[in-house]
Input
Amino acid sequence: MTELQLRKQIIGIALRMNALGVNRGKSGNVSARWKSGFLVTPSGLAYKKTNPVDIVFVDAKAKPVGKREPSSEWRFHYDIYRTRPECLAVVHTHSSFATSLSCLRMEVPAFHYMIAVAGGHNIRCAPYATFGTQELSDNALAALKGRKACLLANHGAIALGADLDAALALAVEVESLCEQYWRALQIGKPVILPDEEMAVVIDKFRTYGKPASGKQRT
Ligand SMILES: [Zn+2]
Output
């Protein structure tokens, strides 16, 4: 993939993020690893008005290169790429249900087996810190330990992926899970799946959709 293609893809994902209803306006942001740094949506520009040239490259030393400023929340993108080599794309949203739960400082427990798509038996909620700060980035990184998604208190959610489509799909799934959890809480106390069962599911997800390795399937 060329840099221009990746810049176009980032804009496409940002537009889809809003079209799918997991984000509104300019509040979220999208990035993809590129060379020794990453490409990220710019600060304060509507996605519909964003052209490939507006996407900002942030290099390995956190220096932005481009005609615009990177998203004000570039810092946690930078730290994620620095510490999570398997992550090639990041989607950050202010989706309604994820954000609502984050305002209650609630993590999402294993009320549904699909919680395992985020990599573990829960989706954590990072403690609050002002947007764009190193403190927020540090909190997000801790909440993402062993996970591909987290909530940010009084703010929104982050989803990581091996590519942009995967990161967006996870952001959509996280929002859907947050909505289901929120709805279940309206009428009772959701039953939480035990850690042993979630370990089985997490293990299944590791091999799900991958070609058979020749190992006997049961
Ligand atoms: Zn945000």
In short: The chain is about 40% helix and 15% strand. Residues 27, 73, 92, 94, 131, 155-156 surround zinc ion (CB under 6 Å). Residues 164-187 form the longest helix (24 residues). Strands lie at 29-34, 37-40, 56-58, 64-65, 89-93, 125-126, 149-152, 156-161.
